[in-house]
Amino acid sequence: MLFLKIMLILNQNRPLAIIDIESTGTNPRQDRIIDLAIIRLMPDGGRETHVFRCNPGIFIPPEVEAIHHISNADIADCPLFVQIAGRVFEVLKDCDLGGFGIARFDIPMLTEEFARAGFRFPADDCRVVDVQRIYHKKEPRDLTAALAFYCGEKHHGAHGAEADVLATIKVLESQLVKYPDLPQTVEGLDAFSAIARDPAWVDKTGKLKWANGEIVINFGVQYTGQKLRELAQNNAKFLKWILKSDFPGDTKKIVADALEGKFPDKPQIPAKIES
What we know:
The chain is of the alpha/beta class. The protein folds into three domains: 2-135, 2-Layer Sandwich (Nucleotidyltransferase, domain 5); 143-193, no CATH class; 197-275, no CATH class. It contains eleven helices and seven strands. The chain has helices at 2-10, 62-68, 81-92, 102-116, 131-138, 143-151, 161-178, 186-193, 228-234, 236-244, 249-259, and strands spanning 16-23, 33-41, 47-53, 96-99, 128-130, 208-211, 214-217. A five-stranded mixed beta sheet has the order 3-2-1-4-5. α6 (143-151) packs across α7 (161-178) and α10 packs antiparallel against α11. The radius of gyration is 23 Å and the shape is flat.
């Protein structure tokens, strides 16, 4: 009766479609849907489950396959999204939408896929329930909240630099005690606390990424998907423009090296990456 309870609490008069997507990557404009699950929670407490698997029409990088374990062979005989877009649209039509991180990823991805198929999505009156945003708003992640959670203390000097540093030290000490599985070195903690990013990115901001063993451009329209190696040989002017423009330092270093014929080796991808 979980679904009936949710709908009664929300006093919902139209279906709430909870969605989740697995894809070829994290860029809604360039990547494609592979797996789409939709559970429609109906106003009467019922539910409808719809699962669609698609051939993205582009290669699934091995580092992405390591995350969702869907291979290129698995989807070779599946339809393209454009071929099933009408069916998916009918499932989502007249629904409100819900999901975890849906506003940041799933909705933009579906919007792009539908646009390529000639559909306008989402509808103007569609309401969105992002469970991740609710979680983050209801469970603050600031230093005051951390000090209360880990140390049971109030942060009386909040936003004073020295008081914040002392509070941070207390929180870190408590974390190391509370979580014995945390790395016990600074190097390990650096890796553990690193901001999650697409494993295909070559630089920190994803201006360059790995594709089929080659570094390719991952921004703009004209050069997206073009190999850095080929651009270094045939279009040095574009790469020199990057060096003169407002790009991050690590991106410029890789581009500068490419102009000198030096390219990094593709990193080894673990057999499994936790998402």
